[in-house]
Structures are given as structure tokens and as C-alpha cells.
Amino acid sequence: MKKSEKTKQQILDESWQLFVEYGYKDTSTRQIATAAGVAVGTVFSHFPNKIDILKTAMHQRIDMVIEQASSADQHHSARLKLRHYADHLFSFYLQHREFSQALLSDLLWHQAYFSDQIELFKQRLFAEQVYDDIKATVMMDCYFMTLIQGLSDPTSCKDNMLRVLTNKLTLLY
Predict the structure, then answer these.
(1) Which CATH code fits 1-48?
(2) 3-state SS of the chain: helix, strand, coil percent to 5?
(3) Arch. (CATH architecture) of 50-171
């Protein structure tokens, strides 16, 4: 790994720890720079702003959650696969509710950032059956609307979110 890549990863790792400890809103780029052992300008040479740090850090962690869920995935239908992955992802998002809300808020207006990750996920869901882009897109819509609704309700839990998602997906089949 190049020095520049190591520095960028150090910034991401330290920012994540600070976000977890102090919250996204209460973590400054100056704190991130100090924790990473770099100048504030170095942080901005790798990321244009704080939301981009969060997006990149979340992207990495979402990939890790998906890979962990993948190792336990024994489902063959896209619907059951989505429910399986949602079980893991909803837990992650609820555990990091503040970051998830900030990320989804930004994602609504900058969908291109996660479009490749979402497209790969849709392909993963249909790995064992004929790919249906319309069905995959509607499934993702159901997933994201359930996620947004769950994150908006401070009393929501993973099991309720999974039940809502399952009910929505049942209408597709």
C-alpha cells in the first residue's frame, strides 16, 4: 500500500473511532486530523468534506457486513437472500443510527456514489436465478424504504424492520 493510501486509511479508521465515540455531528475535521496524526489540509486533500469521510468509512464497513453475511448465506431465492442480508445490515445501521441517517440523507441526493455497490448487491441477490432488473430494483426500493422508516422511528428494532421488509417482498412473489 502506498503512503498516500495508508494515510487515507488512517484518516478513515480514526474518523470512524471518533464518530463512534463522539457522534458524527460532534466530531470535527480538526479532531480527525489530530487523531490520524496529519494536518487538517491532509484530511482535505483526501476528502473534500466530512460527509465524504463518513460515506467512504460507511462504504467500507457495509462491504464488511455484506461479506460476513455472505459467508453464512445459504439461500437460493433473491427474496430470501435479501432478507438474510437485511438481517445483518439493519443491525449495523441501527447500531450506527446517527451515521446511517446522515449517510442516507446525503445518499438521497448523491445516489451515484453508491450505485456500483448497489448494482453488485442486486447481482448478488440473483446469483442463483435469472437476473430480473425490474424485480431487483423494486426489491431494493422496498429495502431502502424499510431502512429509512426504521431509522426514522427511534423505537424501531431489527426484527420489526425485517417483518416489514418480508411483508413487502411477499407482495412481489
Answers:
(1) 1.10.10.60
(2) 80, 0, 20
(3) Orthogonal Bundle (1.10)
Please count the CA atoms within 13 angstroms of the CA of 86 that sit on its side-chain side.
30
The model's pTM is: 0.85
Q: Is residue 172 a contact partner of residue 82, using CB atoms and an 8 Å limit?
A: no
Q: Are 5 and 26 in contact, with CB atoms under 8 Å apart?
A: no
Is there a shared CATH topology between the 1-48 domain and the 50-171 domain?
no
- What angle, 0 to 180 degrees and rounded to 10, lies between the N-to-C axes of helices 78-95 and 112-125? 140
Torsion of Cα atoms, 115 then 118 then 122 then 125, to 10°: 170
| Domain map (residue ranges) of the chain | 1-48, 50-171
Model confidence pLDDT, tens digit, residues 85-138: 999 999 999 999 988 888 787 776 666 767 888 899 999 999 999 999 999 999
Neighbours of 164 (CB within 10 A): 17
Cα-only R_g, the chain: 17
